[in-house]
């Protein structure tokens, strides 16, 4: 049985309505956010129209604000925005979807004013607007809005997408637009992209940067931005309509030779059952001798070969790609397609290849991803002289994985970080090195044979010999 002082709904109900009301007033004193929430709940007791008026007032207040939003204020603003959005979606939309759409559109229009005066390094604010785009699509569908009106609103929005707040709007609105609405939006965007742009006279042109070819003018950037914005929007419409050819048509011929673009085109052609054309799209990319071919292109290539029933070639390419990059996804896909027991032998051969890979750190990262901690431990012991303690993220992860079952390997990894820190006199890392040395001392109790690595006492003595004057480090161990 829960204690009577446990905070739960049943115990709080026992306080009675009057006492709860008094407590809520007391708790909300000094908190604008709590007061707004209470007012919203009170409005909800009357009607969704009253709630809508409260939301509209709050959105207008946010739009009028001019105070800079530094990182300390982002969380409070995020909470406020999420509260308003949730109220629109959960309360207003259920009763009056047309009113809810007007409110969610007003909500989306806040983006420019917010981002102009904020510093949101976490990206949490833009996520709220992307979710609002998805919500707007659902509300618009529920409201049964006129597709022509909706297309015009969306067209105007994507033209003014300076902060990326409308990046997902067209896809979200596709169900509400339907084919006729998407066709109307496509027409509007094409008309906009073809509108003549007045070029200012030379003396009025504003230079905003320089390149090897000379000055970069603001009007040129704006013109390029308009073309790119229109092209991306038309690609999104093509995807919504399932029109692969229209999507491809929006890609300049030169861009089609870029690996990521070719992979995007190929994946769409594959989905449409056009594998031969997908292979032609991929073959436009010159991959000969390149070590930087993106995984997405490689994946599209093997999927295309499989679709063309060229499985042996796909397997050979998977193995080749794995050996070039140690990408574990290629090896997993390769092993899955082998007969029983053959996959075990192939895995052993692959591990032997990884152990001999020129870059010990890439090899270690592979074994951690697989995961194969026993192989990672063997690699660390065998190639300990190659370990770079400056790779703090990789080494910390490796030490954590190895500590429980492979204390010697974990010790070798920790020592690599300690040695780098002291050899480089990185005083900012001394506290970490001190912690790593303490971990080494703890692990030493579980190591029966240090081998050529040397015991903990021997390592500590050598460390004092080489770095005895680094008092900032040793003081941390006192």
UniProtKB/TrEMBL annotation:
Pfam families: DUF6880. InterPro entries: DUF6880. It comes from Rhizobium sullae (Rhizobium hedysari). It comes from the Bacteria. This is Uncharacterized protein.
